Each structure stands twice: as structure tokens, then as C-alpha cells.
Amino acid sequence: MTAQKIALITGASRGIGAATAMLFAERGYAVCINYLSNSAAAEQIEQHIVQRGGRCISVKADVSNAEDVSKLFGRIDAELGRITVLVNNAAILSTQCRLEDISEARFSHVLRTNLLSCFLCCKEAVKRMSSRHGGTGGAIVNVSSLAARTGSPNEYIDYAASKGAVDTLTRGLALEVASEGIRVNGVRPALIYTDMHASGGEADRVTRLKSNIPMLRGGQPEEVALAIFWLASEQASYVTGSFIDAAGGL
Ligand code: NAP
């Protein structure tokens, strides 16, 4: 019998992360759902998975905090086993505005949540997956954004800059660990129907902008989850340092 694969999805209480956690569970993975504060939403996803016979834990942890990340990986080691897939999905954005109205505190908070979190989680994952450290390999998928390419002028340059850096981290780490059994790739969504747009002050942003999308519609979280799953799976065994845009043609 082959050992069950284990996936950590950060920010999995809602949106793209929740859809990804449910997809991995459906495809036979034991899943760790990480979240920041919304315990009720995380429990709902956990219940969904457990009721269908899946193995799942949910862990509250701020992935921008090194101590929290260390405890999060400790829980996975103890309760599920050695991680095989890491999906760095947790991220935030703030109210739409111009650069001169972004405070230093906001810039720093966005960078810590969106970028430092990836760095911290990748570090813990590499220590467990890399053949250099006695691991048997694994896959990391970083959820970036098309904003890394557009720069999000007049909306959230801080968010876009954090995602540009996530893409650079993805490429660099992919090359660093390519010979150690770890593949690292990225998915760049755009205009997906989730709660995130409400944080920017415009809950209906996808509906407003959908006529600009070549496919003339916004995306669903499940469509992004499928791209993430594919990159993490054996189907993508020769793919590393690459990106899939899940953006309707944008
Ligand atoms: P979302 O609906 O706003 O959900 C964000 C998730 O991240 C929640 O589960 C939240 O937990 C968690 N989270 C936030 N800060 C955290 C922290 N410090 N530690 C741990 N968890 C944290 O977001 P989404 O739209 O699904 O976005 C998922 C990913 O896709 C993000 O990387 C985002 O940048 C990217 N993306 C989304 C879109 C889009 O159109 N939606 C477009 C491009 C890229 P709580 O529930 O506890 O708050």
C-alpha cells in the first residue's frame, strides 16, 4: 500500500484555498486547512471533508509569523505525517487607492502576509521534502496573481508588488531544489468570485470588470483549484519553475 499524500493549504477557510482543500481531499490527500481567524468557516470545510471520508485537520495560524508557522508544521508532522504538498495561498489586500495613500504599516502588513508567509512555509516544507535533508520529495504551488504583471495601478500596488516577489521566489526556489525532488510552480489567477474583493472596498469588482475579460466572465475558485492540483500532481512531473495563468485570457 502506498502512503497517503499530505497537503497543507494555507488560507483554506474560504475562497480559492477552501476549493483547493476540498479538491485535494476528494483526490485522496490528507489535508491541513490553515486559516487566520475564521474558525467557523474552517470548521465547515473540515466537516465537508470528514463527512465524505477524508482525513483532515484545521489549524489556526498566522502564516506571516515564524513561530506560528513552526507550530503549524509541527501539528502536521504529529497528526498527519510528513508533508508532500504545500500550497501557499493565504493573502490579503486592502482598500483601493493610489500609492501615496498607502501607509508604511499597510505596506509592511501586506508584504508580510503575502510574501514572508511563502518564504516561511517554503523553508519548513523544504526541510521536510528535500532529499538533501533525508526527505522523499514533494511539490510546492505558490498562488500569485495576474497583478504581478499588471502592477494594479490605482488599486493596490502593494499587493501587486508582493505577488511579483512571490513569482521571483517561485522561480528561484524551483531552480535551487530542482535536483532534490521538489517541484515549485505558481498559479496566477485574476478576477475570481471570492470575498477578497470586499477587502478592497468593492465586493462586486468581478462583475464590474467581467466585460474586459476575453472570456467575458469571472472565474470560480474551483477552476483555480484544478490548476493548483495539476501542478502539484504527478501529471506535472516534468514541470518546475513554471506558471499557469487562470485569468480568462487576460
Ligand atoms: P479570500 O477569499 O480573501 O481568503 C483568504 C484566506 O486567507 C482566508 O482563508 C483567510 O483566513 C486566509 N488568511 C489571510 N491572512 C492570513 C494569515 N496571515 N495567515 C493565515 N491565513 C490567512 O482570498 P481568495 O480570493 O480565495 O485568494 C486566495 C489566493 O488567490 C490569494 O493568494 C490571492 O492573492 C489569490 N488571488 C485571488 C484573486 C481573486 O480574484 N479572488 C485574484 C488573483 C489572485 P480567515 O478566513 O481566517 O480570514
Write up what this structure looks like.
This protein is α/β, with parallel strands linked by helices. It has helices at residues 15-26, 39-51, 66-79, 104-129, 147-150, 157-176, 196-199, 205-209, 221-232; strands at residues 6-9, 30-35, 56-60, 85-88, 138-143, 182-189, 243-246. The protein has a 7-stranded parallel β-sheet, sandwiched between helices. Helix 4 (104-129) links the parallel strand 4 and strand 5 (138-143). Helix 1 (15-26) runs parallel beside helix 2. Bound molecules: NADP nicotinamide-adenine-dinucleotide phosphate (NAP). It comes from Simiduia curdlanivorans. Belongs to the short-chain dehydrogenases/reductases (SDR) family.
Briefly say what this structure is.
The chain is of the alpha/beta class and about 250 residues long. The protein has helices at about 15-25, 40-50, 65-80, 105-130, 145-150, 155-175, 195-200, 205-210, 220-230, and strands at about 5-10, 30-35, 55-60, 85-90, 140-145, 180-190, 245. It contains 9 helices and 7 strands, in the order βαβαβαβαβααβαααβ.
